[in-house]
């Protein structure tokens, strides 16, 4: 059973069929769900090998007639739309920068049967933080220069006899990272290659002694910004038919 099938069945449980018939000449709830799913797919942004960010704030603009009909569904429609967006994101491997928000809004410029979706893109909704992941524990890079080593005076201490007291340093400017060996005894490797210094790509692995340290770039919620102009998609159901 597809996600839209699940949506329709959930909606049927919430709304009686007689009421649903009033939507025959305008937007159907399933068409809103399909438009949201399409917006998720079009606006998803690849951050790294295992992270795809999708927009999490949506405004669905409807004609006055359609907005009146949809408002009559109350929380039933809102709950089903949230469920569908969350399930579709999970199925596609998308992540969100914050809670999902879906708002239905009246737009006097739209004709019956037309809907418009505005979404906040990943670029406009997140800030980036570099972290070092060691055995499942993440150490945020809170300074521009982070020293890794065996000594207690290192910023990130590792219990590895193959590490020098101050073995390597990671430089992070908020967008780019670099690793630099600090004249260590046994050297530093990046993705299996010995280096003196090298740029850090997301998900690359620094090896010090027997310790693997994965460099991650993670998303954090940022203050909301207005949607970018190209983050708007318009759908004319009367001309194009239901979205699939």
Automatic annotation (TrEMBL):
Composition bias type Basic and acidic residues, residue spans: 233-244
Gene3D superfamilies given in the database record: 2.60.200.20, FhaA, phosphopeptide-binding domain (DUF3662) (3.30.2320.60)
PROSITE patterns the UniProt entry points to: FHA_DOMAIN
Keywords: Phosphoprotein
Signal sequence, renumbered to the chain: none
UniProt region (Disordered), positions on chain: 222-244
FHA domain boundaries: 146-195
Pfam families referenced in this protein's UniProt entry, alphabetically: FHA (PF00498), FhaA_N (PF12401)
InterPro entries: Cell_Proc_Reg/RNA_Proc (IPR050923), FHA_dom (IPR000253), FhaA_N (IPR022128), FhaA_N_sf (IPR042287), SMAD_FHA_dom_sf (IPR008984)
SMART domains: FHA
Annotated PANTHER family: NUCLEAR INHIBITOR OF PROTEIN PHOSPHATASE-1
Protein name, per record: FHA domain-containing protein
Species annotation: Microbacterium thalassium
